[in-house]
Specification:
177 residues; mainly alpha; 3 domains
Length: 177
Amino acid sequence: MPFPRPQKTDSEDVLYEYAVGALARRMRSVAELKRLLRPRVEADTEYGKTLVELVIRRLKDQGYLNDAKYAAAFSSFRRDNEKFGRRRVITDLKAKGVHGEVIDKAVASVYDEVNEEKQARDYLHRKRLQKPKGQKDAARVFRQLMRAGFSSKTIFAILKKWEVDDETLTALEGELE
């Protein structure tokens, strides 16, 4: 059964109420909220674009919408709860439409005191990944840590401490290029 199409509106108040409800469910970036509001107005018309911008401006003025606070909260959540590395958080924030300068400031403030190797070990513990038994397991751990946003330097440091053979490490270095 397909989802019904959102009802179009030309009322600022109706659109505002919908936006507040969306923000009540979870925090969103400005770009995410705009993507959510566009189907509810005639987005290709000048009036629809203006209506979305008015609602966004009103939410910003009231403090309900702030990309800097969103990026900081998102970054600290991903660091503390999901144990992701810096690169993964940056990539996710870019996908959410947050501006580059805002991302840099938020991620720098959240990750400045973080020991990346300890963070990677916490991630491995969270995912219940054990010391690799062979080349295939080492490659799996390597790829998983890369997807989680850790630097290759940190990953190789962990693998060396796990006494992964040099042949496997050389093969994994070749995978980086």
